[in-house]
Amino acid sequence: MALRNRLRRAAPIGAVALLLAVPVGACSSQSNQGTSKSGPLVIGASISLTGDFADPGKAVKAGYDLWASTVNAKGGILGRPVQFKIVDDTSSPDQVVTNYQNLINKDKVDLVVGPFSTLLTIPASQVAKRYGYAFLEPAGGGPKVFDQKLDNLFFVQPAPVVKQGDVFADWVLSLPADQRPKTAAYTELDDPFATPIAENLRSRFEAAGIKTVYKQVYPAETQDYSPIMAKVVAVKPDMLVGGTQSEDAYGQVKSLVQLKFSPPFMFLSNGANSPVEFPDKVGAGNTTGIMSSGDWFPGSTAAGSADFAAAYIKAHGGTADSIDNSSAEAYAVGQVIEAVAKKTGKIDNATIISTLHQGSWPTVLGDLSWDANGAPTGSFHLVQWQNGKLVPVFPAATAAGNKPLFPKPNWGSG
Amino acid sequence: MSFLRGGAFFAALVALPLFGFEHWVMNLLVFVLIAAVLASAWNLVGGFAGYPSLGHAAFFGIGAYTLGLICKGHEFASPYGPFFWLPVVGLVGALIGWPFAAVSMRTRADVFAIVTITLLFVAQTLAFNLRGITGGAQGLALPVARFPVETFEWPYYYVLVILLALAMGLTFLTMRSKVGLALVAVRADEDKARGIGVPVTGVKVLAFAVSVGLTAMVGGVWAYYQSFIYPQFAVDPLITIAMVLMTFLGGRATLWGPIIGAFILETGQQYLAYTLGGSRFYLIAYALVFLLIMLVLPRGIVPSLVRRRSA
Amino acid sequence: MHALIQGVILGVLTGGVYALMASGQTLIFGIMKVINLAQGAFVILAAYLAYQLFVSFGVDPFLSIPVTTVVMFGLGVGVQVLFLRPLRREDKAELSLLVTFAVALLVEGVLSVTWNTTHRSINTSYANDSISLWSFQITEVRLWAFLLSLAALGGLYLVLNRTRFGRAVRATVQNPDAALLLGVEAQRVSALGFGLGAATAAAAGSIYGLLYPFNAGSHYDLISRLLSIVVLGGMGSVGGAVIAAMIVSTSSAVVASTLSPVWSEMTFFVILLLVLLIRPQGIFGTAGRGAI
Fold first, then answer.
1. Chain A residue with minimal CA distance to B135?
2. Which residue in B has a C-alpha nearest to residue C101's C-alpha?
3. Mean pLDDT, to the nearest integer, of B223-231?
4. In the A/C pair of chains, how many CB contacts fall below 8 A?
5. Domain segments of chain C: what residues?
6. What is the mean pLDDT of residues B186-208?
7. Which of A270, B306, C10, C224 has the smallest count of CB within 10 Å of its CB?
8. Fold of the domain built from segment(s) C2-278
9. What is the Cα–Cα distance from B215 to B89, expressed in whole angstroms?
10. Is there a contact between B118 and C224 if contact means CB atoms under 8 Å apart?
11. What is the DSSP letter of A214?
12. Quick one: A37 exposed, middle or buried, by C-beta within 10 A (0-12, 13-18, 19+)?
């Protein structure tokens, strides 16, 4: 009887003890690195190493690591070696908040850089803002990111996601009127990236007089693209604009092949810019003529690009064609940090925040600059599949001599 | 006796922030409390009534979006404003849960589980597709709370302590009341219970409505803490899994079981994810812990610590 | 009209695959009164196996089915013996649901560790070929899948009705106590029955991998569809599951073709709700003990 009562009492007391044990245990294990002006420059990052975003997450980590080793070989930043503290957020927004809390307040890292995806960037950037940390991020470019109006946030890509398709519209509308498509169909994935791109294109094309003959927004769980693509085929558009990510891009192309319809103009915002995955999934003979947009491509003459590609191949093997854009974007984040240190001689958060809102900063993605809300003010490149390779075709200045191929040849012709 | 224990526990909880813990600790405690209230709420339906609902996350999401919509339509002068609307959020959750339970609880427990899983996916689909209301895949922004940075987590913490007290109070009442007795009867043998006149359906539906009302309120707090919600995270099967696992670990149909389960699992999970990071094995570990508990400790921790009085 | 018929064609072809998956699920319930929440995960596992055999050895997924069937059968028996049999009688009803759920998570975890989270699909040379019939396109892969599903279901029917084991299974489904009295070994039937249910996932997995891109997390969507089908058909009735699969699949495809793909996902829930309101025991379920 006595034992039982004692055990009964133990339960809630145990709970309180547990409550206290965690913070007490944590208090004593505080690491004091990062507050000194010498010693390694510790940069914290929460990356999706497991969960839904694991694959691009790993590419981001590869980019950060590559930059760290490159810059350390040159003596580090302001004489301090760069050290990344990378933690896994399991692709969860709760974990990402906890991670940045821990990085900033427990481990007291010097700087933080962003996670993968707009979905995780938004909650994470709030945490960084609260504690006055600059937030350079390679992968959160959806419109809501900039709606937050955070002055500490900088999206390290040439343009916000919404504008990713603009370069395609620029090209189409630069063609003489009789060569332009007259009708267009829009197939859009319901997702913070894909839909805004396609909608932006649609408003530009409609304003230019290209008739919208079909539009469909489909959910992420869609597995069967045949019903949607069948409706596209039924109206035989001159141009197909796909606001896509990866799986749905493959699905759309495969459906079109099965339905035996090839639109003369075809743009897929993502998926088609995957150098290895795309031909693997849709068939190498079906890629020619499909257009997409990208920020980095092999053979780019942007600052540090050749070094980046060489270092990547040395570390991971493969060829320049197999490099994931996410790695280039992460690498660019590092380049920006390096550039701020070089220009101002300082590398604290306040300096970064005040410096990056003006000027143009050279990276492997081209020269970047940002507005007050962290939205970059440049534009992407238009890329197209030709002869089994993804090449830049527009604008001409950066197209390395390649010209856009149109109308798109039929399926299976190369 | 139990009032003393409960009182001591809550006094400790209330006093905790005054110890000046670091932000990351407070952050962790907020998530732990969220887990504790959720597990406790689930316990009402899954533990006491014996109906394993695998779709509670749908109501978590409903709560999150309800508060989001309230904030969208209402300019709050004070950052504490949204908290006062939580009871409305809870009511909305309960009102939606009531007819759902009335239809789906006419069936047996295992079919009920199926229906709740399906509800979860429907809720997620609706969250994605009712773009005009929920913002769809673009997500929904809540106003960023203008609490002072130093004590940012405190308001959330205290609101959650209140919700926990509410959940535990309701659980306590259930255990000691006629409703509780009725639920025990339902859980033991529903046909017999109906036979002797226990208002079986009414009692089940009541438990469900209360449970999801609480869940919705927690969803609201979570949404406000995150200040931005997406459909796939607000309505996430992993939330349900966590609730179920914590209750099982701690002990179903007990007062303290879900709390203990929540403290152990949530702290463990966040800590492990942060320190071990990059290890893909965490889902496997989760599943193995789950299986281990069910095979070795089917009653959970609390009842196993205490030798059960024969019913 | 064209879209409607195209939708019906698509629905019927896909229905065959779902029928196969659901038949295993409903069979397990019939024998053991256990809802196997891991059925979706089994299908995905089988899809990965077929994928790996295709990628490493060039074996066509249809041809690797005999191999994967044996593997999945063994797995099913193993799961039943290791995780379900040890459950104590009084816990069984409540816990078996959660145990199978944990098994699903375990399978998902192992799959994501082994193959990471990239979506895979089995791209055979004929993957994009289609046959034109009047003005309708019928994807070759879907047609073969449909025919194979019919063959597999036929095989299942033969096992259930023409073998001693099958008779034991049916006896256990109809009346477990009487079956025990008549000498049927309940434990053995349960284990082998679970194995048989898992084995249906093997063929379904090869087909699934050919039709859709999948990764470790794909089982959630799959299991919720399967569950609706099983409830609609009547828990424990294989014939019911087949018919229900056709109904649900066709309605879903028709809604996608004629209205909008957005709402086709909801179709199966609407159907489920209607079933629960109008006829809770499903099409072929028996009201009263044993079913709902």
1. A192
2. B287
3. 88
4. 82
5. 2-278
6. 80
7. B306
8. ABC transporter involved in vitamin B12 uptake, BtuC (1.10.3470)
9. 10
10. yes
11. E
12. exposed
Are A95 and B270 a contacting pair at CB < 8 A? Answer: yes
Q: Two tokens at C193?
A: 């029955």
A224/C10 touch (CB, cutoff 8 Å), yes or no: yes
Pairing of strands A111-113, A389-394: unpaired
State the pTM of this model: 0.80
Residues 66-95 of A with CB under 8 A from B: 86-90, 92-95
Structural domain boundaries in chain B:
2-236
Phi first, then psi, for residue C7 (nearest 5°) are -65, -45
Q: Name which of C6, C116, C117, C126 to mutate to probe chain A: the one with the most chain A Cβ atoms within 10 A of its Cβ.
A: C117
Rounded to whole angstroms, the Cα distance separating A152 from C253 reads 47
User: Would you write out chain C's pLDDT as a tens digit for each of its 292 residues?
Assistant: 777 887 788 888 888 889 988 988 888 888 877 888 899 999 999 999 999 999 999 888 889 999 999 999 999 999 999 888 887 666 676 678 778 888 998 998 899 888 877 778 887 877 777 788 777 778 788 888 888 888 888 888 888 888 888 888 888 777 777 888 887 777 888 888 889 889 989 988 988 888 888 888 888 878 878 888 888 888 778 888 889 999 888 888 888 777 777 677 777 777 877 777 777 777 777 654 333 2
Write the CA distances from B145 to B60, B79, C106, C131, integer angstroms. Answer: 20, 5, 39, 59
Specify whether the CB–CB gap between B45 and B211 falls below 8 A. yes
Chains touching C by CB (3 or more pairs below 8 Å): A, B
Give per-residue pLDDT as tens, A335-371. 999 999 999 998 899 999 999 998 899 999 888 999 9
Whether B113 and C97 lie within 8 Å, measured CB to CB = yes
Contact predicate A269/A277, CB 8 Å: no
Contacts of A287 in chain C (CB under 8 A): none
> Which DSSP letter does residue A185 get?
E
Instruction: Point out the residue among A14, A88, A144 whose CB comes nearest to the CB of B277.
Output: A88
Q: Is the dihedral of CA C132, C137, C141, C143 positive or negative?
A: negative
Sign of CA dihedral A284, A288, A290, A293: positive
ipTM of the complex model: 0.78
* Chain A residues whose beta carbon lies within 8 Å of the beta carbon of residue B267: 18, 22
Tell which A residues from 163 to 202 touch B, by Cβ distance under 8 Å.
Answer: 190-192, 195-196
